[in-house]
UniProtKB/TrEMBL annotation:
PANTHER family: EXODEOXYRIBONUCLEASE 7 LARGE SUBUNIT. This is Exodeoxyribonuclease 7 large subunit. It comes from Lacipirellula limnantheis. The gene is xseA. Belongs to the XseA family. It comes from the Bacteria.
Length: 405
């Protein structure tokens, strides 16, 4: 009887496909494949589907619409191509395919393939990133040029530069720009330019046009790394407009030709003069406008009453203060009269209720000697006690001899 596999080792088809997909994507993130196109189709979506084949095998391939839009050639069955892409597993069919990122005719030479591979390698290291590019100085005083001192590039560069700007010191660092040993001399020139004292403001690496083989020294890894490592801002002017080398990608600024390199590295005196005149005109216009605005505002302020008659507001407030002072005085006197009348009324009432008031009518007040409490009944007295009798004016001391009633 066959053995029963453990439950945790049983995979679904989807799970197995996912694992295979992960393995393929991890181990084949980028691969170059050569073959003949067959079964080519491009539906309305714009994606391209085809098969790459040779004598021994076939490989399904797909090129997405955005990649296909960049192609310079028309695809069809029967052409030999070289593709770069990544392997991917298509789960619905359980088959793997090549997702093409780049396609070119198979007839490309070994130099072009090596150039593309080197470009990918250096780009992955960040040597071509825009974030590391530096701006060139606006008004350089010392310029270094790495090039052949006998070539047409240096003549074109100097002619254009002197026509545009004067008073610039140019230091030429001689180097062969073609053939064996050229890359080493270019690297040595770049390093020497970085060490010269006083330091230069900008470094130009330039030469005239040529074939891929002629310009190959500017694709050498050592030259590219030397340009990227330069402490001085660099500008490349290599070849013609259609020539693009790895040195161009590593430089801070790329010029299409040596002449354009001169235009990029120094400003135009004529353009600056025009700009200064334009700024002068704008400044004059702005000052005139500002002056007119200030004069109008000053005239407007001069017509305001507070500035024409500055003491008028003070007089008005002084008059108002006098009025308030009179009202306060009148009000305080009225309140004082009312309070005085109320006080006199209350004093009269108090006087009428005071026991001293009856003394004026012939009555008197009697106290025991040494006490302040009135004696209101004879029963509270004893013979022999001393009593004090108070009159309206003065008082007398008596002794009780007899009590009646």
């Amino acid at each position: 009887m066959p053995s029963k596999p453990p439950a945790d080792e049983i995979l679904t088809v989807t799970q197995l496909s996912a694992r295979l997909k992960g393995v393929m994507e991890e181990n084949f993130p980028s691969v170059w494949v050569a073959g003949e196109i067959s079964n080519y189709s491009q539906p309305q979506s714009g994606h391209c589907y085809f098969t790459l084949k040779d004598d021994g095998a076939q490989l399904r391939a797909v090129m997405w619409r955005n990649t296909a839009a960049r192609l310079k050639l028309a695809l069809h069955d029967g052409i030999d191509v070289v593709c770069r892409g990544r392997l991917d597993l298509y789960p619905p069919r359980g088959s793997y395919q090549l997702v093409v990122d780049e396609l070119q005719p198979k007839g490309m030479g070994a130099l072009e393939l090596a150039l593309r591979q080197r470009r990918e390698k250096l780009a992955a290291e960040g040597l071509f990133d825009a974030a590391r590019k530096r701006r060139l100085p606006a008004f350089p005083r010392r310029i270094g040029v790495v090039t052949s001192p006998t070539g047409a590039a240096i003549r074109d560069f100097l002619q254009v530069m002197h026509r545009r700007w004067r008073g610039v010191e140019v230091l030429v660092f001689p180097a062969r720009v073609q053939g064996d040993g050229a890359a080493e001399e270019i690297v040595a020139g770049i390093r020497a330019a970085n060490k010269v004292q006083p330091p230069i403001d900008v470094l130009v690496v330039t030469r005239g046009g040529g074939s891929l083989e002629d310009l190959w020294c500017f694709n050498e890894e050592s030259v590219v790394r030397a340009i990227a490592a330069s402490k001085v801002p660099t500008i490349s002017g290599i070849g013609h407009e259609i020539d693009v080398t790895l040195a161009d990608l590593a430089a801070d600024v790329r010029a299409l030709t040596p002449s354009e390199a001169a235009e990029r590295v120094v400003p135009s005196a004529a353009d600056l003069s025009d700009a200064v005149r334009s700024l002068q005109h704008r400044l004059s216009t702005a000052l005139s406008t500002r002056l007119a605005h200030c004069r109008h505002r000053l005239d407007s302020l001069a017509t305001r009453p507070s500035l024409c008659r500055p003491l008028e507001a003070i007089h008005l407030r002084g008059r108002r203060l006098d009025e308030l002072s009179l009202r306060l005085k009148s009000a305080s006197q009225g309140v004082l009269r009312d309070r005085r009348a109320t006080l006199e009324t209350m004093a009269g009432k108090l006087e009428s209720l005071s026991p001293l008031g009856v003394l004026g009518r012939g009555y008197s007040l009697t106290f025991r000697e040494g006490e302040s409490k009135l004696i209101t009944s004879a029963e509270k007295l004893k013979p022999g006690q001393r009593i004090v009798t108070r009159f309206q004016q003065g008082s007398s001391v008596s002794v009780v001899e007899q009590i009646e009633g």
